[in-house]
Every structure is written in structure tokens, then in C-alpha cells.
Known about the structure:
7-stranded mixed β-sheet; disordered N terminus; 13 strands; alpha/beta; 4-stranded antiparallel β-sheet
Amino acid sequence: MTLTHENNRDHGGxxxxxxxxxxxxxxxxxxxSTGINPVPYPIGDVEFATWTDLPDxxxxxxxxxxxxxxxxxxxNAAILPAPGASALIARLPALAQGGKVHIPxxxxxxxxAAFSFHGWTxxxxxxxxxVLVHPNNPTGHWYSEADLNAPFCxxxxxxxxxxxxxxxxxxxxxxxxxxxxxxxxFWGLAGVRLGFAxxxxxxxQHLSNLxxxxxxxxxxxxIAETALRDFAWAETTRDRLKQDALRLDTLMFSAGAKLExxxxxxxxxNVGDAEKWHTRLAEQKILTRIFxxxxxxxxxxxxxxxxxxxxxxxx
Length: 315
């Protein structure tokens, strides 16, 4: 019996499946099905010892200090580096006794899958927990502090680095609040598999116990520390993402699409027949994202610098 972590839940990516259906090699394809920054942070040289040695305490302390400064984390909130935000999402429901959870839909489906696995039920009526994907994926909706209305609140800010002023991380020192951060999206380094949980020290320590020691690799810690201290790169990147998002909108509007939502890392369009658009672009080796709950929505990430002309021709 072969086990799979996907459990038939739909996600962006999945280029292997597209290759089986439409052919070609990975090099032939433009993958616009995710919201990952196509111009990643330049990681530079990674010390060889980070590959051969177990990461020591100082490596974790350094990246936590960088994260605290970068996200302006309250001093009484704890920070836990983890092997990807998904690893945290899978464990978060275990931090509270099972009950009712409110997860505004549509949104990233791994949260509901994790709570369901841990025996929670779903309700927006006096919930024991709530999950806010902030900004939401795929709609781009931003929430407010007033929406933190349950004893246990998870705020998934995987895409929030495009607008740090909208972050709710200043609430991370409040009882029952956990804020998630993803290193893979804004910095474009999803393969590093790094995420952060920020929140009440008791909850964060519980999460740390669930993950075990040395949960994050030495190379990931070194890369993240450098990137999180590079404020200039972050500002330049936000400006570029804004311009590229507008450029993508212009292309899609010319092809007849209407903007439905999104962020500057991904755009959500109403295209009428999303399956038709998805198939037409896939036949030209461009992978986009469609959703099982909408026949009209098509989501595109941003093309890399050398991919714009090909997308324009395909449209």
C-alpha cells in the first residue's frame, strides 16, 4: 500500500500530473499554479558545516532574533521555526481540546483537513477555535482584530509579507493566539521548507514538543537568518510584485478576464469557464489553478522575468 501526504486534497503545483496529461518535460512548462515569488531571494554561499553538523542552539536563536526584528514580534510572544508552515498546520489542532472550529470558506484546505483529522467539528456558532488565512487564499481578503473571536485563534499569514502593515502579529502575545509565517512564498524558497509559529509561549512550547529536536535543517536556518535581516531586498521585492501584478492584470483583462481578488503574489480572475481556460493554457504548457468549488475562478501566480512573452502569446 502506497501512502500519500496529499490525501486527494487539491493544491497548486503538481506539475508531475500535468506532464502525464499534457506531455513535455518539466523544463517545457511555466508553473503559475502557486503563489510563490518567481524571483527568489539570492541565497549565496551556504557554509558546508550546515550540511554536515546538527544545528546548534545558537543557529536557532539567531534565526528567532532575526524573525522577531523582521516581523516586529511582541517581546512576550515566542517564536518557533519549523519545517514548513504545513508541518505546523497539521499539528495545531492538537494544542486545544477538540470542539467546534470556524474556518471561513473558501480558503486553503489543509486547515480543515487537519482539524477534521483531530476530531473537531465545523461551525461558525460560538466556536472554540477559528482559523483566519490572512490574506485569504485564494480571494485575498484581509481580516481584522475583531475577527479573532474564539478562545483559540490561528492566523495564517503565509502571504502577508506583501503588506506587513496589515499583519496581526501584534496580537501574537495574547492568550490562545498563534500566527503562522511562511518562508517559501514571499522569499520564493518553498523548497527550503521553513515556517514559523508565533504566539503564546505555552502553546508554542507544546508545538515544539510535537515537532521534536532539530526540526529545521542547518542550511534553512542560515538562509533564513540572512534573508530576514535583508530589509532592503524585502522593500524592493514588494515594489516589483506590485508592478508585476498590475502587468498580469493588464494581460488578463485584454483576454477577457475580470479581477476577482488575490494579492500581489497571486491573482484570482473570473473567466467564465475556468476549466476551458485551464485546459487551453495547459495545452501550451502553462499550468494555472482552478478550484472544485467554482467553475469561474482561475488563479495565476506571477511569471518569472523571462516568461511574460510566452504567457502573452498563449492568451
